[in-house]
Amino acid sequence: MKISKEFSLKKFNTFNVSETAKFIYEVDEISELKGILSDIEDQILILGGGSNILFTKRFEGTIVNLKNKGINIIREDKNSILVEVCAGENWNDFVIWAVENNYGGIENLSLIPGNVGAAPIQNIGAYGVELKDVFYSCLGIKLNSLEEFEMKKSECKFSYRNSIFKTELKDKVVITSIKLNLTKEKHNFNIAYKELKENLSNSELSLKVISDEVIKIRQSKLPDHELFGNCGSFFKNPIISLSKLKKIKKVYPDLPSFRFDSNNYKIPAAWLIEKSGYKERVNKNVSVYKNQPLVIINRGSATGREILDFANDIKNTIYNNFNIQLEEEVLII
Fold first, then answer.
1. Catalytic amino acids?
2. Which residues of the chain have pLDDT under 70?
3. 221, 127 Cβ separation under 8 angstroms
4. Is the same domain home to 196 and 291?
5. Which of the 8 DSSP states describes residue 1?
6. Fewer C-beta neighbours within 10 Å, C or N terminus of the chain?
7. Which residues, other chains included, contact 208 with Cβ-Cβ below 8 Å and sequence gap of 6+?
8. Strand order in the sheet with 173-183
9. 276: left (phi over 0), alpha (psi -120 to 50) or beta
10. Would you say 252 and 293 are in contact if contact means Cβ atoms under 8 Å apart?
11. By three-state DSSP, how is residue 66 classified?
């Protein structure tokens, strides 16, 4: 365990924003965690890889950076395997491990940044797959009582980029590990996503082939945060009613849409942002990424406040142009 005071958070967030925290605890062992949580009297923020957070000011409380490691096989049979993964593991490293061991179900989630512990909070998803598709349970500690818990999939209230950990249990628990059900044989390859389907139409499918293609697509669209600080997609793709979709299509017939359920459609936030002129709008410190307007980038020395102001300007413009309220994926502090 490492304890720091008045600590710079620049290396703890992929936006590369230079804010500070009153205290930060870097915790390697869960056995230390309860003692730490019982001693902290001010506000607590659990931080993993910092890939889905924007700091806009000094954090006046204590940050707990969970760095516990480990991948354990709980049980397996001929067709499936239940794996427990510690919260401090890097998500993409875990996906690579699964692919190399021929365990299927998360290959479409390759190269998503961040740590394993954050995956259920966001119900991470990409290219036709979401974490909930393979999720079994998560283990953690309640911050108020220090009671350990295990929550099954049915209790987590998963939805599009959402879960109980962003609503009723926000700031009330710390996830210490997750359990996932992965396949061992007879993999159900998912290449329904347009680019995957087109690029792999003549390929012999395997977990590695799909994973490699997902990585290739993501690298073509998303910037390296070491070069341009970012958190990937800043906004969720909005879900609108069929009546609103028809109304917008009368003015913009080229608007892409995808059926979400019987009454609603998902539309690309990137399309809305590009249509509103932000792909060509470059500020000194902040802009959208040229290859993917859904990604807001720190061009070098932007403050968190500058990034948030830019994001709010996008939100206001989209609302004025389309009567659609964009919602952030990123946690804003």
1. 161, 233, 329
2. 1
3. no
4. no
5. -
6. N
7. 99, 100, 107
8. 71-76, 80-86, 173-183, 135-142, 148-152
9. alpha
10. no
11. strand
How far is the C-alpha of 90 from the C-alpha of 109, rounded, in Å? 13
Residue 1: predicted pLDDT:
62
Task: Answer yes or no: is 161 within a domain.
Answer: yes
pLDDT at 75: 96
Residue 210 CB partners (closer than 8 Å, separation 6+): 107, 108, 189, 190, 191, 196, 200
Beta bridge partners of 171: none
Range of the domain at 248: 239-332
Exposure of 166 by Cβ count < 10 A (0-12 exposed, 13-18 middle, 19+ buried)? middle
Q: Is residue 241 within 8 Å of residue 264, measured between CB atoms?
A: yes
Q: What percent of the chain lies above the pLDDT cut of 70?
A: 100
CATH label of the domain that carries residue 202: 3.30.465.10
As a whole number of angstroms, the distance between CA 170 and CA 321 comes to: 32
In a shared domain, residues 82 and 46: no
* CA 166 remoteness from chain centre: 12
CB-CB neighbours of 147 under 10 Å: 11
| Helix/strand/coil for 214 | helix
Sequence-ordered list of residues with C-beta below 8 angstroms from that of 20, at least 6 positions apart, any chain: 6, 7, 8, 9, 58, 59
Are the C-beta atoms of 105 and 133 separated by less than 8 Å? yes
